[in-house]
């Protein structure tokens, strides 16, 4: 019989574990959040190719009314998904993203603002396609590359002294894409929590430009 009773982790050791898990969670969250905006472009492409949009325009619907109604309906569906995601965060008691009022408010606001930025961009992408299945796959791939891949690349390049300057310059290009901003902000929230609450350093607040 083997029994293992290790000493409990110190506060700093536990915080490091929470930080690593939060960074991993941030990267894994990017995968489903890359798919969500692509799914909303399917109906837009299908409606255009089957001439349903043209019929509405010929019937007197203004372009502003068409796009406003499409966005309102899609964003309401997006909000339902986000509410469930936030509920999961609350139920499992994430130690960083839901640690205090500031980090919780920053995380929740980030989820809602991501939809406001990514859905219209998916509509813009949709004009490049005449097939709704191709649109979904390609837009998903674009979001995955501009989100998961760019976040990972920037994270690795910043860790290496030789590529740190290039990473600091490329980040301004990366930030044109909502998927990248979403992933970077989640990682920055975790990093800010660790610096402030564990290391005791005043690096930046959650609401500063370099974090959120």
Protein model, in words:
This protein is an all-alpha fold and 212 residues long. The chain is 75% helix and 0% strand. The protein is built from 7 helices and no strands. Helix 1 runs antiparallel to helix 5 (132-159), helix 5 packs antiparallel against helix 6 and helix 5 packs parallel to helix 7 (178-197). The longest helix has 39 residues, at 11-49. The chain is elongated. The model has no long low-confidence stretch (mean pLDDT 86).
What descriptive keywords fit this protein?
mainly alpha, 212 residues
Query: How big is the Rg?
Result: 21 Å
What class, by secondary structure content? mainly alpha
Quote the beta fraction: under 5%
Please give the share of residues in helix: over 70%
Based on CA inertia axes, which overall geometry fits? elongated
Largest sheet: none
Mean pLDDT: 86
Task: Count the E strands.
Answer: 0
Order of helices and strands: HHHHHHH
Number of helices: 7
Poorly predicted parts: none
Give the termini distance in whole angstroms: 51 Å
């Amino acid at each position: 019989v083997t029994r293992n009773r290790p000493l409990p982790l110190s506060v700093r050791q536990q915080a490091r574990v929470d930080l690593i898990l939060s960074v991993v969670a941030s990267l894994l969250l990017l995968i489903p959040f890359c798919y969500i905006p692509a799914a909303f472009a399917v109906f837009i492409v299908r409606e255009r190719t089957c001439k349903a949009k043209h019929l509405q325009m010929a019937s007197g619907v203004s372009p502003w009314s068409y796009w406003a109604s499409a966005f309102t309906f899609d964003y309401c569906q997006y909000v339902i998904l986000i509410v469930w995601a936030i509920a999961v965060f609350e139920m499992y008691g994430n130690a960083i993203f839901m640690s205090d009022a500031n980090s919780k408010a920053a995380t929740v606001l980030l989820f809602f603002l991501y939809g406001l930025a990514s859905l219209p961009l998916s509509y813009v992408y949709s004009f490049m396609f005449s097939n709704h299945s191709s649109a979904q796959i390609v837009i998903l791939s674009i979001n995955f590359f501009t989100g998961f891949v760019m976040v990972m690349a920037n994270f690795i390049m910043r860790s290496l002294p030789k590529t740190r300057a290039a990473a600091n310059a490329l980040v301004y290009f990366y930030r044109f894409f909502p998927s990248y901003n979403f992933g970077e902000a989640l990682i920055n929230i975790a990093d800010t929590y660790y610096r402030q609450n564990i290391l005791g350093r005043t690096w930046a607040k959650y609401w500063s430009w370099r974090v959120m």
